[in-house]
Specification:
- The chain is an alpha+beta fold.
- The protein has 13 helices and 7 strands.
- It starts with 6 loop residues before the first helix and ends with a helix.
Amino acid sequence: VSRRKPRGQILSNKTSSAVRAWAHQRAAASVLLDVLDALHAQRIPVLGVKGIISARTLYADISERPISDVDLRILPEHSKLAAKAMLKLGAELQVGSSNQWQATSFVFRGVLVEFETSIGPPGLSAMSVEDLMKRARRDSAWFGAPILVPEIHDHAIVMLVNVFKDKIATTPPWAKGDLVRLMDHPEFSVGVLAERIRMAKITTLAWVVASSLAEEVPAWRHAMEMLPAPAHPVLAKELLSRTTSGDRSIVNGLLFRIANDSRREQARGLLYGAVGTALAKISRREKK
């Protein structure tokens, strides 16, 4: 008995997904306009990353890129001021893993808005939000208010760190899709990406993600020849083997926090990971 769906049903499902993605993107853009106005009133520069930006830089239409939240980056010194601005706006603060990720999340008009002050979990990347802001361009056309848009190779660093942080196998397919489409961007250069990878000290992390993508994407297979070798090859191979294990243990989680090339950053990442895990456990016990 054939289990294939009728062609009309397949097309209908694709159309439905595109409509949902478009609606989510439009709702996110509307929310973002108010958020940007509130933060600009406090003189807080805002860097947009991931879906809200990649939908407009890597895709022909925003309906091709699903989005689950609005990801923003701000400077660490603006974290408290941004939180006050969001609460004044009427947003609801979400209790989460802010101690572990240095992230603060809000729900505003049904849309999740996340602020982070580092590129990925602390200690994972040596590149800072300030570094990205210096190379970013200012855009006012997309959302009706100015937002900083990361330079394409800097955005690639954010994408690599994000996919790695999610253990690759469990990351949403569109996050990996961004990295695939990145290769076709007219301004993209593997050589420049290799330079930025070294600057961020994420050669081990990048090798793991690129190796995973190279299994299915020819462009990433070719890119592997130009990307720097992992600073910690033994760790890199161990992490690659764990990307498909589905292991949710604390040990596995902490291993993915020490992929930076610098031993100092590795220690920092491990500390934040351990403290965040301990606080999360305490929080769960209190709820019980």
